[in-house]
Specification:
Elements lengths: L1 H20 L10 H12 L1 H19 L6 H16 L8 H25 L8 H42 L1
Helix pairs in contact: 1-2, 1-3, 2-3, 2-4, 2-6, 3-4, 4-5, 5-6
């Protein structure tokens, strides 16, 4: 499941780009990487989730022409937000998943803008952009429990297939 998560996010990140950056789709953009970081934190522990977060950030840094290390730092902060937030909210519960994913995605978007402004990037943020940050974070939070269910079903299927191969082979 861990390797599948890597490839799913890589495909998601490479295809997301221009499709979502403009128009109404950006209001409903799901941050799959953040959701998978939270899922991996529950089922693979801290080490698996933090390696995934740093690795995905590094991949984005590699394929983008932005500041080197920016997305690695942002996804590390995203991981830390979910990790420390899970001390106060149960990440296994529906409410905890929605809230922690919402906070992590929204904080990452706000920090992205803050870092870009800090490093003298000329960037203008409109009220529509802020609204898209909030709706995207909210939509990611609302979709997270459904994706957790799908990931659990995929994991069960993979485990069942692995057991069948072990018994037959």
């Amino acid at each position: 499941m861990y390797i599948l998560a890597w490839f799913a996010c890589l495909f998601f990140l490479l295809s997301k780009g221009e499709m979502i950056s403009q128009g109404p789709a950006r209001f409903f953009a799901v941050d799959l990487v953040t959701i998978i970081i939270a899922y991996l934190l529950i089922y693979f522990g801290t080490a698996g989730a933090v390696i995934f977060a740093i690795g995905q950030g590094f991949l984005i840094d590699t394929f983008s022409s932005g500041l080197l290390g920016l997305f690695t730092l942002l996804y590390l902060i995203t991981f830390l937000t979910i990790k420390f937030g899970s001390f106060f909210f149960d990440l296994d519960s529906l409410r905890g998943q929605i809230f922690l994913i919402f906070i992590a995605v929204f904080l990452r978007e706000i920090l992205l803008i803050a870092f870009l402004k800090t490093f003298a990037m000329e960037i203008f943020i409109s009220l529509t952009d802020l609204l898209s940050f909030v709706t995207s974070a909210l939509f990611s939070g609302l979709v997270a429990p459904l994706l957790f269910f799908v990931f659990n079903q995929i994991s069960r299927l993979l485990i069942r297939k692995e057991k069948e191969l072990t018994y037959n082979g």
